[in-house]
Amino acid sequence: MAQTEKKGGLLRKSSASKKPLKEKVVLMYDEIFTTEDPSKCNPRFWEELFLMKVNLESLEGKLEALDGEELMKIKDNINCLFQHCIQALGEEHPIRVVNALQTLCALIRGVHQKNKSTSGFDIINMLVGFDKAELCMKNLMESLDALLCAEGSESLKSLCLKLLLCLVTVTDNISQNTILEYVMINSIFEAILQILSSPLSRREHGYDAVVLLALLVNYRKYESVNPYIVKLSIVDDEATLNGMGLVIAQALSEYNRQYKDKEEEHQTGFFSALTNMVGSMFIADADEKISVQTNEAILLALYEAVHLNRNFITVLAQSHPEMGLMTTPTSPVPATPVTPLGTTPPSSDVISSAELPLDADVQTSNLLITFLKYSSIVMQDTKDEHRLHSGKLCLIILTCIAEDQYANAFLHDDNMNFRVNLHRMPMRHRKKAADKNLPCWPLVCAVLDLMVEFIVTHMMKEFPMDLYVRCIQIVHKLLCYQKKCRVRLHYTWRELWSALINLLKFLMSNETVLLAKHNIFTLALMVVNLFNMFITYGDTFLPTPSSYDELYYEIIRMHQNFDNLYSMVLRLSTNAGQWKEPASKVTHALVNIRAIINHFNPKIESYAAVNHISQLSEDQVLEVVRSNYDTLTLKLQDGLDQYERYSEQHKEAAFFKELVRSISINVRKNLAFNTLSQELLLKEFSTIS
């Protein structure tokens, strides 16, 4: 009896100390992580490995646990694993292909992470070995290309794109990722285009394909000939370009929708009730809480398409039903998780609705309208770094559009009128415009509205000088087109003039603070020259003679601001300080504005005295203006309708380098946590024939 108890005790003790069983795949990883060839004892080792469900955590964890020296000892086995993964990509059985793709993801990520901490070995040598690198990478890229172009599983295509995104983003600075040399030599550009041109593939993989292309285009773009840049610049296939446009439009639409939902939720919440109770004193703080993570990756893709490919400009104006306005979808639209800068595409159902025939009852939209709405949201708050970068990129894209002859043609086309509901920052002194009161006019008016909105809402202590300069340049480029083509745009020009004058007033009021950080005279000169443009050429592009009269009225009405500006620049240009030269340029630029003020003010005073009127009405001032044009003398100013064209390499290289770095980090982070789950894949391939 005692013996049995003892035996029982021993059994229980043994059971308690028993280690949990390891998965077979983990045991096989253990064999790889030794200096011995695992196929020596088991010739079918590699064949069996790819039938096992991959344990990403275990594989990456093992790589992480080794130091650089230990990793070098098992280099041959790592090379062997990498090569067998590539061989498995050519297998007929999809489960082996899936497992090979996921193993490659873990290997590339794990070895790169190790390379970060101990840069004592070359990444290519560690993964494939120098002697076999060229052939192995060629085989890998050809296999991925074949899988992406085949008519097979959409899940496999998705995993191929994830692997490529993993490959591209393992380093923060993608230009330091030497593996990408093989992606340049063995191009997958055509496979990406094929995905974008097919409605089914585009819905499933369009987002990943577009982000991948945007990143590849930025690999060493200033240092060598990048084949993806060359190829993207000459794409002229309409279906492909439209497909790319639809993917970008959907991603931006999704952002706009999320922002609108948050805004509505915010307005109906407790804070809204509190604001109504105590007035609007908290409105700015309340609005700051409405925040949806910006999507720089998709914005970069739009920029590269607009900047590199002239044919893409036509896609901006391609009409489609307003995304998100389809009232009776045929199937319920699934909720889309927020994926900031990530690689998971937004809800695909809305893209499919965008490809339906146009319905007369549905508001039509296009990529440019969607982009303008997106810009109006991200440009509201430039205090956040991501939004500042997004706002800057939006203005760079608009700069490229404003310089393009064809883009200007459809922007100013009277037959293409749209209601564009831009988001406007809540301000105490203005009411929110009702959507139904929005005018229906050419798209250039929405661009100008966006610029005016930015000018009015960002006069603050942390003054975004760079964004203001870009904003004024866009307005100038649009005016140059209008002057050149004699386009008489029926726009509320007074709003622009008022915004520009208030900007000058702000620069003068904050002279000391701003001069400590910025050369405000560059911006002041640009603003003054916009007025000079209107004065010199306004009769060729302002809609009516009365519009030209109103310009003079505004200059005369606000003459105190121009007088103060002249006093300020005269003071600084007569001193031998650092601002002497830039200030004197503004002094010379003010000559015609001062001539108008000095010519008409005495006439207005005389008219008031003769008619015994203490304060003249607008109509009376306009009457004086119209009857005294003949005696006004203005100087002809050269170069007002000339501008320096946008150049990325010389001025924006540092910005794009930092932007791409930020996108790379975020794409990698998103891949690591969200997108490598096997469950769906294994369900799809649960049987091996």
UniProtKB/TrEMBL annotation:
Signal peptide: none annotated. SUPFAM superfamilies: ARM repeat. Residues 435-671 form the Armadillo-like helical domain. It comes from the Eukaryota. InterPro entries: ARM-type_fold, ARMD3-like, ARMH3_C. GO terms for cellular component: cytosol; membrane. It is found in: Membrane. Keywords: Membrane, Transmembrane, Transmembrane helix. PANTHER family: ARMADILLO-LIKE HELICAL DOMAIN-CONTAINING PROTEIN 3. This is ARMD3 protein. It comes from Leptocoma aspasia.
